[in-house]
Amino acid sequence: RHCRLRSWRQRRRRTPGSPLSRPSLRASWRREPGNAPPYVDDFLLFAATRALALSLRQRVDRLLTNLGLLRHPSKGFWEPTQYGHHLGIDIDTASGYFFAPVEKLQKLARQARHLLQRATRNCRWLPVKELQSFAGQAQYLFLAIPAARFFLRELHSVLGDKWGGRVRLSPQLSRDLQWWTQVPSHANGKNIHRPVESAYIHCDSSGYGWGAVLNGRLEARGFWGIQDEQQHITWKELKAVRLAVLSFLPHLAGRNVLLHEDNQAVCHVLTGLTSRSPEMMNELRRLWYRIGVPRDGPSGPTSLVPSRAAARTRYSRQASLARHCIPDSLPAWLYLRRGAVSATLTLSAVNGFFKDHGAEPVAQGELVAKVRRGLAASQVSLQPSRTRLYLPARILVSSLRLAKDLRTQLTDTWTQAQAELILLFRACLATVLLATFFCRGGAGVECRSGDLLCTPTGGILLYHGTRKGQRGTSTERKLLCELPASAHPDMAKLLQYFDAARTRFSAGKIPDRRWAISVREPTTNWTADTLTAWLQRVLCAVHEQPPDGFAWTSHSLRKGAATAAYSIGTPMQKIKFFGGWARESDVVLDYIDPTVLPCPGAWQLFGWMTPGGPPPNVTRQSATDGISEPQHSLNG
Length: 636
Prior knowledge:
The chain folds into five domains: about 10-80, no CATH class; about 105-190; about 195-305, Nucleotidyltransferase, domain 5; about 330-380, no CATH class; about 395-625, hpI Integrase, Chain A. About 40% of the residues lie in helices and about 10% in strands. It contains 23 helices and 18 strands. The chain has a five-stranded mixed β-sheet with strand order 11-10-9-12-13. Helix 16 packs across helix 18. The protein is extended and about 90 Å long. It comes from Tetraselmis chuii. Keywords: DNA recombination. This is Tyr recombinase domain-containing protein. InterPro entries: DNA/RNA_pol_sf (IPR043502), DNA_brk_join_enz (IPR011010), Hepadnavirus_pol/RT (IPR052055), Integrase-like_cat_sf (IPR013762).
């Protein structure tokens, strides 16, 4: 709106036909060089030059003075600038782009990661209120991120008319939230000015087929299949646009394209990047992902601008345009790219390409069977995989006894000569303690020194640390579970000795990782394989090996702990709580072998979790001395 700075009373006193009546006022606004779009009590003044901006500032100051209003000196931008923040959006008139603030994008990324992690823990169930809050904050950035509506459509479909409770996370919504976790690195920025098109496409569809023309000379056409003929004409028009773009992809790379389309609904879908129709939205996604990863920014956008005869609607996006061509010899092409991993992807790509161009898929039936048979004949498994088995409780008891023996051999001040004993002591202690906490992620290699602590009374506390999939999320520190002092007093003493000795070994500095021996030990590449290596070191020391055809890995600690606790009658809710399984989830049943009988080792490690405690004839000393447990068919 072009604003002529007059007081409201002056405008109101004018009669129709006066110089400031409504028609003449609008005409005078058009002649003003300044532009002042208002929003409630927020105003933003635009001017072509700095001198004009200073002149407008003086007029605004006089107007506020005449109205008896006082401007707050610390609010707003009183000096002319080419980069400002207005109504939550950064405006850069020098480069000609709207931007979303980095702080808001980082906040949205953290919320998206939090939602994905919460869905993982709760069987894909999420609170409606949290999704609504995320949708409101993300929808607001549409002016700077045109793709916001596109990646929020599935969220609105999942929410529906619900205002409370929980909803199930759909696979598409999971993919959209994953996109929001990476918003700070792409898709931020939208053109303020109208882009200049360097190519144009005329596209139309009918009940029998579709056709398109690029720049008035290149043509593309096709006929609808039996299933496509039964679809709505709006869906056909949108698919015709997608097929036209795919047909002209080699000629559209790096260009702004003006699309002439006579269907108003298709122009609305392409402009807003959203549709309530699931079929239309699926077709729009196929167009979106086939063109490439979207990004609007100062790096030279490639845009597809839909247009109608009466009005133009437009949006901008950057496309990574790739060339698509049908190979001259399909079997030879598949042979050159064959591989057990890439065969399925290759065949799917071939089918998708033929479907997009109105042809029947060729990579199916006998062709697929031949390719698979050829791959099976040409590949040999170099190392047959072994079945992962739970770790028996008796091995954990032996590891604890070995850790006690090593403690008597080690001095209070570690030296380089004791390196092998220190590494073995660390492996034994970590193996037993992780099994006691059911090898949950918070106690593993990602555990920090402040997340696993000993109490003055001899208990062990496990706090919320870096969980699986939450490395980039900042969460509040809270207590996850506690191991009572009466459960394993010897284990708490060993942990206290380990902390004191490694602190002295690091010259008074506490290593960041809980299981690091010194601050100089590299821990950035620690994974689950690291725990498996520690477990193998312990197994060699206690002279234990898994049965033929089976393997003991770090995951065997989790399976062994759940199996041992279940064998002695530990309530399932306690097992889920200490193991970090969701209360409504039945995944814990996959970790339990119900055929395993109770044994002294299980009573020693997990007997304190049972309602009545260990029986009188099973003492901790007897288990420590190595009372043999009943043999099982798989543990030898």
